[in-house]
């Protein structure tokens, strides 16, 4: 990972908890925080992938040479299971008496069916992960942040929360719910020292589209055909930047596209080379 162009000294020895940290944006964010000298708790459902990401965090911290951080822990977590979220605080390592930064990264999209043909199981999975899981995580950690009167909550939203598109009605609805939840929470926290940031990416090349197309790699590849999409590292840079600002600065919302995108499925594609 390339060196950051901005100072991250304010993150030294801060404790960061990230959901969905076994790959994609979550993993890239964990690595950049480790490089910046933060302590990181990685959560996701796959223990083997978490352990591998933890080892990469250790290497990233050494590479960053910040002289800070270096503590990492992995916790298996399914954000759709309320009992696991409620029990998360009890599983935190001894060195994590408090979580300074919560990154609500877990989320997914399933299918491209239009209204009338959407599978009910897909509706439940998307709302349980993207909305209920995020709200449960926030509820648990915001209480402790209020007790300390400090903290930062980062949420991964989407351009889909602003603009709906055919074949994405449920996903768009979940991200619109997240956006409005964040707007309400921002107002609730205005009299505290707790900061809130929503990152709203456009096209990012991760396993997102593979999941949407139920493992069809060829269909997923067509989403990015003729484009230079954003990378997980691009989004991680935004997250780390927002959470490393001075205490009086609150980066409340970031909308980020690749240059060739102007909205959901509104792209300028280059023709394939012959």
Main attributes?
alpha/beta; Rossmann fold; seven-stranded parallel sheet; two-stranded antiparallel ribbon; 8 helices
How many separate helices? 8
Pattern of helices and strands = EHEHEHEHEHEHHHEEE
Mean model confidence by pLDDT = 95
Spatial order of strands in the largest sheet = 3-2-1-4-5-6-7
Distance between the termini: 32 Å
Radius of gyration: 18 Å
What kind of sheet is the major sheet? 7 strands, parallel
Shape: globular
Percentage of residues in strands: 15-25%
And the CATH topology?
Rossmann fold
Helix content: 25-40%
* Number of DSSP-assigned strands: 9
Uncertain segments are none
InterPro entries: KR_dom, NAD(P)-bd_dom_sf, SDR_fam
Protein name: Ketoreductase domain-containing protein
GO molecular function, one term: oxidoreductase activity, acting on the CH-OH group of donors, NAD or NADP as acceptor
Keywords: Oxidoreductase
Question: Would you kindly provide a brief summary of this structure?
Answer:
Helix content is 39%, strand content 15%.
Write the layout of secondary structure elements.
Elements: E1 15-18, H1 24-35, E2 39-44, H2 47-64, E3 72-76, H3 82-86, E4 101-104, H4 120-148, E5 151-156, H5 169-188, E6 194-201, H6 208-212, H7 217-223, H8 232-243, E7 253-256, E8 261-263, E9 266-267
Parallel strand pairs: 1-2, 1-4, 2-3, 4-5, 5-6, 6-7
Antiparallel strand pairs: 8-9
Helix pairs in contact: 1-2, 1-8, 4-5
What do these coordinates show?
By secondary structure, the protein is α/β, with parallel strands linked by helices. The protein has one domain (9-263): NAD(P)-binding Rossmann-like Domain (Rossmann fold). It is built from 8 helices and 9 strands. The protein has helices spanning 24-35, 47-64, 82-86, 120-148, 169-188, 208-212, 217-223, 232-243; strands at 15-18, 39-44, 72-76, 101-104, 151-156, 194-201, 253-256, 261-263, 266-267. The strands form 2 sheets. It has a 7-stranded parallel beta sheet with strand order 3-2-1-4-5-6-7, with helices on both faces. A two-stranded antiparallel sheet has the order 8-9. Helix 1 (24-35) packs parallel to helix 2 (47-64). The radius of gyration is 18 Å and the shape is globular. The relative contact order is 0.14.
């Amino acid at each position: 990972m390339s060196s950051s162009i901005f100072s991250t000294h304010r993150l030294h020895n801060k404790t960061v908890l990230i959901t969905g940290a076994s790959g994609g944006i979550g993993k890239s964010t964990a690595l950049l925080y480790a490089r910046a000298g933060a302590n990181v708790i990685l959560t996701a459902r796959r223990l083997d992938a978490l352990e591998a990401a933890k080892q990469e965090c250790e290497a990233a911290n050494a590479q960053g040479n910040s002289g800070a951080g270096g503590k990492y822990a992995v916790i298996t977590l399914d954000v759709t299971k309320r009992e696991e979220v409620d029990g998360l605080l009890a599983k935190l390592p001894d060195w994590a008496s408090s979580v300074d930064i919560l990154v609500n990264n877990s989320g997914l999209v399933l299918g491209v069916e239009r209204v009338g043909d959407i599978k009910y199981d897909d509706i439940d999975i998307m709302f349980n992960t993207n909305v209920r899981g995020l709200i449960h995580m926030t509820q648990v950690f915001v209480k402790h942040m209020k007790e300390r009167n400090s903290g930062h909550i980062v949420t991964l939203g989407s351009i889909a929360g602003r603009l709906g598109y055919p074949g994405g009605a449920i996903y768009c609805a979940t991200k619109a719910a997240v956006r409005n939840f964040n707007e309400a929470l921002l107002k609730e926290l205005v009299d505290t020292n707790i900061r809130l940031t929503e990152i709203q990416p456009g096209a990012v090349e991760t396993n997102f589209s593979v999941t949407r197309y139920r493992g069809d790699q060829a269909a997923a590849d067509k989403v990015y055909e003729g484009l230079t999409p954003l990378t997980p590292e691009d989004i991680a840079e935004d997250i780390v930047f927002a959470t490393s600002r001075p205490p009086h600065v609150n980066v409340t919302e970031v909308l980020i596209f690749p240059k060739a995108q102007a909205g959901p499925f509104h792209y300028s594609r280059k023709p394939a080379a012959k």
